[in-house]
Amino acid sequence: MQVAWAGAPRKICLSFSDRASRMNRLRARPRRSSMARQLLWLALGLLLASSAADAATANYTFTVQSMRINQLCNSTDIIAVNGQLPGPTIDVFEGDEVVVDVINASPYNLTIHWHGIMQLLTPWADGPSMVTQCPIQPNSSYTYRFSVAGHEGTLWWHAHSSFLRATVYGPFIIRPRSGAAFPFPVPDQEVPVVLGEWWSRNVVDVEKDAVMSGQRPVESDAYTVNGLTGQLYQCANETFTAVVQPNTTVLLRVINAALNTHLFFKVAGHNFTVVAVDACYTANYITDTLVLAPGNTVDALIFTGAAPGSYYMAVQPHETLSPATLATSEDDSIATAILLYNGMPATATPAMPTMPNSSDTTTANDFYFGLRGVAAVVPSPVDVSMTIELGLGQLPCDTTQTSCTGNSFAAAMNGVSFRAPTEISLLEAQFNGNHTGVYTTDFPDGVPPNGTAMVEGQK
Question: Are the beta carbons of 127 and 113 closer than 8 angstroms?
Fold first, then answer.
């Protein structure tokens, strides 16, 4: 299916530099007469009043607590929000203010991160534990307040403390402001599709074991679609089903909430038209396979013009690291949901898409390299130039890693492996103007020479 739209595409991702450039152009214009300036201020006031009238405040309460769930022949206690997996959907309009009261009724420290929100002037609402805030302790609460101005599309929220992100997550949908429209044909139906990983044990213990040994965490036991594993796993007793009308356009808001794994996503008998990635509109891109990195979101349209029937939506891991580095995921670990045409019996046998091999880098690269942005203003000139190299290496085991032998895996940026502070958050130290003992200001702006040893720190 080819979808097209008329008119110039809107620029959604607006940088600080771009805003400043616009303001500078305004300041550089010739001075108007007093009457003209008064009319300009009147028009500006009416515009601001109209914008304020359109904006609203969306209030949510998140109660984070334990819940028991049956999956893969096991009864497992997990941490979730409001007794849901995935957690509640935040659904707002561009420009709205969002207020979320988080009540921590779990036994763990935690924070919530609003993944992809720029947090203009509200960095303390961003959520990463010990970076922008200290964690919310058990039997405590915290209120997040921020604006979603300048955002449209699909994002998500999740815990930003330890492996709690495995089950503490949910969609974050930002719709065009009233009076605006999608830069593509309005879909007849929307379906959020949240992909995840599932462990049949306490995920905090999974992380703790990995840290203590200095090795990678154990592979997840399954993958999920909207919290359910689907019909191909042992003891699978529930499957997410989306009922759609024939010959209509459906917008799939696909979110990869997995902790560690890139995922392939396909729908049997249907192609996708990708229209947005990470809440930024893209040029139309037609494909039969979506590839999502952890934390990635893709908005894709499908047209339900296939023969009326039942079709699997299938999820399979894409292994991005060599087997010599990390163990390879199993090709037969496939989570499924169902796209069911209205009028078809729920018992109809679903068609299965042909899935790539887990190591199929060609399919993954075709997807990533096929994406194109819409026309956008690039800030110029560039004031700061940096080269950032992401790496995975090894560091000597430290004394706290009781089951580590020799070296442990560690990730790094420009040779620096980050360690969160323990007494005060980075943002608080910066705000107070005293970062001594919390972080240093010497983060390297280039890649260290070959052979330079990896170091730990807060830079």
Answer: yes
For residue 45, pLDDT beyond 70: no
Chain centroid to CA 426? 23
Mean pLDDT on 90-107: 97
Cis peptide before 381 (omega within 30 of 0): yes
d(Cα 314, Cα 269) in Å, to the nearest integer? 12
pLDDT at 63 over 60: yes
**SS3 at position 178:** coil
3-state secondary structure of 365: helix
The one-letter code for the residue type at 97 is E
34 burial class (0-12, 13-18, 19+ CB within 10 angstroms)? exposed
Residue pointed to by tokens 């040029």: 283
Amino acid 22 reads R
- Asked whether 305 and 332 are in contact (CB, 8 A), the reply is no
Exposure on the CB side of residue 155, measured as CA atoms within 13 A: 21
Name which of 311, 440, 447 is nearest 385 in CA terms: 447
With a CB cutoff of 8 Å and minimum separation 6, the contacts of 358 are: 316, 317, 318, 319, 328, 329, 330, 331
Tokens found for residue 116: 């992809």
Residue 225 CB neighbour total at 10 angstroms: 24
**Which of 101-115, 226-240, 410-424: highest mean pLDDT?**
101-115
Contacts of 40 (CB under 8 A, 6+ apart): 32
